[in-house]
Amino acid sequence: AQHLGFSVSRTYEMFKEHTGQSPIDYLQRLRLKVARQKLLETDRPISEIAHECGFNSSQYFARSFRRFTGHSPTTFRQVNK
Fold first, then answer.
1. How far apart are CA 54 and CA 31, in angstroms?
2. Whether pTM exceeds 0.70
3. Is the pLDDT of residue 1 over 80?
């Protein structure tokens, strides 16, 4: 925000106007998209992928992933391999 010359709240508002999402929601979706690709392209453990993508716990990752895709990470991987 400082770099852009706007207040934090104004930067937040402009981001939401342009993307339709809050910065936090945008970042969460981006992390989940990366995780989805890693689940499809590797056989690495889900907990490892979760931590690589910025999730502090695999349980929180699994809940977020289910909301984003409609499937658990395990089911998503099985159905799409």
1. 7
2. yes
3. no
What is the rounded distance in angstroms from the CA atom of residue 62 to the CA atom of residue 67? Answer: 9
74's torsion region: left (phi>0), alpha (psi -120 to 50) or beta? Answer: alpha
Tokens of 21: 């999402």
* Distance from C-alpha of 70 to C-alpha of 54, rounded to nearest angstrom: 20
Contact 58, 46 (CB under 8 A): yes
Instruction: Give the C-alpha separation, 14 to 28, whole Å.
Output: 18
Please tell me the distance from the alpha carbon of residue 42 to that of residue 49, in angstroms, as a whole number: 9
Distance CA 5, CA 16 (A): 17
Encoded tokens for 17? 């106007």
Task: Give the tens place of pLDDT for each residue, 56-81.
Answer: 999 999 999 999 999 999 999 999 97
pLDDT, average across residues 21-49: 96
